[in-house]
Amino acid sequence: MKKYQEHPRHGAMRQHGEAHNREHQLWSRRDFLSATGILGAGSMLLGNIGLKAFQPTPLMASLANGANDRILVLIRLDGGNDGLNTIIERGNSHYYNLRPTIGIQENNLWALSQEYGMPLATNALQPLWDNGMMKVLFNVGYPDPNYSHFRSYDIVASASDSEVVVNTGWMGRFLDNEYAAFLETPPTVPPALQIGVQTDLVFRAESANMALAVSSPQEFYQIAQTGQLYDTALLGNTPRELELAYVRQTANAAFRYAETIKEAYSRGKNQVNYPTNNYLAEQLAIVAKLIKGNLGTKVYMVHIGGFDTHAEQLDFHLNLLRNLSEAVKSFYDDLGAGSNQDLPKNVLGMTFSEFGRTIYENASLGTDHGWGTPMMLFGGEIGNGFVGQYQDLSSPDPFGDPQFSVDFRDVYSTILQDWMGNDPALVNFVLGQQHPTINGLVPAIVPTLGDNDKCALLGHNPAPDDINAIEIKYAMMQNGPVRLQILDTAGHLLRTLVNEYRDRGAYTFRFRPADWYLSPGQYQYRLQSGGQIFQRGIKL
Question: Which of 29, 189, 271, 432 is most buried, judged by most C-beta within 10 A?
Fold first, then answer.
């Protein structure tokens, strides 16, 4: 195993002074530029907090409105979570020798099993564990780790190897593959919804950031209640006010998802009291309302910061874990309240962080940037238990941490394939290489083969009453813009037959090639709708 001095470690520790401060400045500066740069279509900077959501892909859509209507909630622990003080190996003398001051004592633990426990501050999670709704993955990481917040998070967000820079995110590539016409004919439900100042690399695709960025629950409430971001009614007719009205109207028009969000938010109801003064709970309460209001999205992302615990860690970290635990418990209680008792089994929560912490405490009674960190999964019918190997603390290396036991991309692969029901070929494409799935991590489902049953392009046939005409049939799953075009066999655009906004429903376009000055031969026809492209061959 490589030692710390063989890694670019300078700046990872608080004792490195100005180098460490520069590392954090880089992180903050990059976040600011990402947010203010408005990298994605419809992305906007508004305030100061963080939540995301995604529209179903075709394979995910094949599960919608049925028994396998599964949802994923990603929970980012920002700053590098200390795994050894999150999941504790009970009675391990090496742990207490390495952490004489900040180690969690046995009388402050609740038992996951005879071998492992969690701090009493997290006891809100005990009912989830006891009811088979929580799993723990030990020591999750990647080979040759990087200890910079900025670079390590980019690795985790892009699913790249440590030495490879990839400028797109794993979810961004996934959504881009399913919404190839995102810029031309965008869906009316956001492929990604983000509340936070940072337009996250997780959702970045080649052509656009798939996340709509709204930066605070307060701004989200305004959208959900009014259907727009900026008020234009009170502006006058001065040149400055007219210019401001134009800018605001443009911003409101770009926020094309407002009506869908407003309707879902008004339908959904929170049925439990979430903890107060809990930033994560406030985000999860919004997610619960959107899920219960049938927004139609299948993946959400929330975050909680503060895990960069270089000094005075003990009480501060325990408070973070308490906020996490109480927020997650309230969220699942809310999902299952009233007539929604089966809903929690279809919602999978997953924590992740850019890296872990050192196995030993430092002179400031904290921990520095380290290697592996645990992931926790939550949800109905996933069972409980442990995956991977706990860190071996028996022979500590003074320069390095025990090697990771679970590659984070194996977790992504399992989620994409087993939970979301995607084909392995698509999963390998999204992750850039083949990664194994983890057997039994989540209940596996088999996706519907193909997507003709949900596909917008249904096909074509000769018109029954005109031998010179062809009927091209398509269906709109939701209101939105649609384009129907004719291309040659090389894919060059020849004619645009339909280019307009249409309501949800089934349509037939009567196509007479002679009317469009097209000679007999082989062609293709293409439908663009809801951010997706569907294409077939046709002989005229």
Answer: 189
